[in-house]
Design goal:
With about 650 residues, the chain is an alpha+beta fold. It has 17 helices and 25 strands. The strands form seven sheets. It has a six-stranded antiparallel barrel with strand order 3-4-7-6-5-8.
Length: about 650
């Protein structure tokens, strides 16, 4: 749901986003990220002091002891304790305790845990991880990947699934260990009544996948094996020391049974955590006693994994929508993804959340959405009336929307403090047809031209670069023409900024360039540069790109077809005559003597068809096209309307050309 949406293209120059929006799930998701950002920026580091003692436990093993007081924020007090023990030469062992502990094997895998691990452990975004998981599911390698359940069904054949992996070079050894135990009892999880947990369905090898698909499949298989493996058991040893009547301690772990960490190796214990064999009352030589000063540090930015945990905790989104919300705040430039998949809010994201808080703090809090979820659960349990709850929810959002609109100036003030207005942004670029003064090119997304004098803004084509087109002007509105160059083929076309936004003819769509303009006298319109119908799309016209020389090309004004023609020609133009065979517009081609590619050293040829004339047909090269499609009717000569007498012939010529080059 989106209750607030504004197009920003006409207001701020350095605001790099095409859309500002509010959503009851999306905005609290962003709110978590901005809240952490605010905590980091307002954090004031505070100095503290601790005493660190290093002892020589054995000939080859040093131990660094932890102070029982942990740390002190008063330097004088900490220094007093340091003076008290700094000259001590030995530490006395005052206590040794051991306790066996268990690291539980994981529960069955659900979607949220899959996304968490994919982000924190595999470096994949939740959105990408779910795309890969869905592909693995459709290919039959894993079960349905969207589920909240963490408990295997009673009739689930765990043994049968395990046996498929018994001979695997990657998982076989671990699977055989599990099967040799006899009875298998996975941890009890939660069955929410949707789909079973995510499990592997069949054995596959690395060669069957790309890199990321294999890593996700490998994790799913290992997680499944881990859920039916024993718990990891280890022994925790704590040794207490007395140094000058100050208490210190050190602890370590000794592995007893690796259990599930054999297959989920990233959760294995560190091999050097076990303690040396010391005796009670033993005196241990002290190597060093140090007073260390440190500063408190702020928390780091939220990772995607931590954000998923917060969203799940507060009831924001579902297993299906959580990756969508995280992807949205990234795609809309509210956050950027830093190293370690950390989510760093942008100036836009920060301003949005702060603006929402100024107007109505509840818009950012997760409580609004969780309250709606609670009411929906009442409907699902048969304890709530659908119509009443729907009316109540709609009324709340209606009132909040009205209040928000009435106080929108609070948001505007924040944006004005953060971003530059269009009149303050950009650089002088081309002249406005209305006032004859320079308009400014604002290059940030979305690109646009802004006339400070007229206070008018004109959107520009996306995904390319712009330059002035020989200071030529549109015959309709006197705006200076611009040239757009972009796309995979280096396609380019001139366009009028005003006509691009306000098409002058009914058949022109918004966002059209001169290559689609039917003005009869424009030297760069469709009537002057159109050559033939495109054989690859139903409505396209092949248009001469007047800026492409000396590597001249025809480009379709609807699709990506590009035809290179008459390379190194000095001049190339479209004649008024048409080809009697195919009804395409004929060409006038002129070469310099030293670069001519015409037969018999000719330097100029007039009224020749690039498809039919033998003088030019060898100078045509199709540069980019999809496979030739089934024949369909052309539209004549490319003047914006078809002529019946040659309707089928251009279609056939282009189909033959496509078949030849493809």
């Amino acid at each position: 749901m989106c209750i607030y949406k504004i197009s920003n293209k006409g207001k701020y120059g350095n605001l790099d986003s095409t859309l500002i929006s509010y959503g009851p799930c999306q905005t609290p998701t962003l709110g978590f990220c901005v809240e952490r950002h605010d905590t980091i920026k307002t954090f004031q580091p505070e100095p503290f002091w601790l005493i660190q003692v290093s002892v020589q436990a054995t000939e080859f093993r040093k131990l660094v002891l932890e102070w029982e007081r942990v740390r002190l924020f008063d330097r004088e007090v900490a220094s007093t304790f340091h003076q008290k023990i700094k000259d001590c030469k030995q530490a006395k062992v005052t206590g040794i305790s051991q306790k066996e502990k268990v690291k539980q094997r994981p529960q069955a895998l659900n979607t949220v845990e899959l996304m968490r691990v994919a982000s924190s452990g595999l470096g994949m975004s939740p959105h990408s991880a779910m795309i890969i998981a869905e592909r693995l599911y459709t290919q039959g390698y894993i079960s349905y990947p969207r589920t909240e359940t963490t408990h295997y069904p009673e009739n689930f054949d765990i043994i049968g699934v395990l046996k498929q992996f018994r001979q695997s070079p990657d998982f076989g050894a671990d699977v055989r260990d599990v099967l040799s135990q006899g009875s298998i009892h996975p941890r009890k999880g939660q069955d929410v009544g949707d789909h079973p947990p995510i499990t592997p369905m069949t054995l596959a090898s690395r060669e069957a996948f790309d890199h990321d698909s294999w890593r996700l499949y490998d994790y799913i298989v290992r997680h499944f094996i881990g859920t039916v493996s024993p718990d990891c058991k280890y022994l925790v040893t704590r040794i207490d020391f007395d140094v000058g009547h100050e208490s210190f301690s050190v602890s370590g772990k000794k592995l007893l049974d690796a259990g599930f960490t054999r297959t989920m190796h990233w959760q294995a214990l560190s091999p050097d955590e076990h303690m040396p064999d010391l005796k009670l009352n033993q005196m241990i030589p002290i190597n060093e006693v140090k007073l260390i000063e440190r500063l408190t540090s702020p928390p780091d930015y939220l990772t995607e994994s931590e954000l998923i945990t917060l969203m799940e905790k507060h009831g924001i989104g579902t297993d299906a929508s959580i990756p969508v919300h995280i992807n949205n705040i990234s795609q809309r430039n509210y956050v950027t993804v830093g190293s370690g998949r950390k989510l760093i809010p942008t100036a836009l994201g920060i301003s949005l959340v702060h603006g929402y808080r100024r107007i109505d703090p509840q818009l950012v809090l997760p409580t609004m959405r969780s309250a709606v979820e609670e009411q929906l659960n009442l409907i699902a349990k048969g304890r709530g009336n659908y119509d009443e709850i729907l009316h109540h929810a709609l009324e709340i959002f209606r009132l909040k929307f009205i209040y928000f609109v009435q106080h929108i100036e609070s948001m505007d003030h924040l944006f004005e403090d953060t971003f530059s207005t269009l009149s303050q942004s950009g650089r002088n670029f081309s002249r406005c047809g209305a006032c004859r003064r320079f308009m400014k090119l604002v290059a940030s997304k979305p690109a646009r031209l802004h006339c400070p004098n007229c206070d008018a803004t004109y959107s520009l084509p996306a995904g390319g670069s712009f330059k002035l087109f020989n200071e030529l002007k549109c015959p309709l509105d006197d705006f200076e023409l611009l040239l757009w160059v972009g796309g995979p083929n280096g396609k380019g076309y001139p366009f009028c900024p005003y006509c691009y936004v306000y098409p002058p003819f009914r058949e022109m769509k918004k966002g059209s360039g001169c290559n689609q303009c039917t003005h009869p006298s424009c030297a760069y319109g469709l009537n002057a540069t159109g050559v033939a119908s495109c054989g690859e799309c139903p409505n396209g016209i092949l248009v001469l790109d007047p800026t492409s020389g000396p590597k001249w090309q025809l480009a379709c004004n609807q699709c990506q077809v590009v035809i290179k023609i008459c390379e190194d020609a000095n001049k190339l133009s479209v004649a008024n005559s048409t080809c009697p065979e195919c009804d395409a517009r004929q060409m006038i081609v002129e070469y310099r003597p030293e670069k001519t590619k015409l037969a018999n050293g000719l330097t100029k040829i007039k009224d020749a068809c690039i498809f039919c004339s033998p003088e030019l047909s060898d100078l045509v090269e199709k540069r980019y096209a999809s496979h030739a499609k089934s024949k369909r009717g052309g539209r004549g000569r490319g003047r914006g309307r078809g002529r019946g007498r040659g309707r089928a012939k251009p279609k056939d010529k282009m189909a033959q050309l496509a078949a030849y080059f493809v």
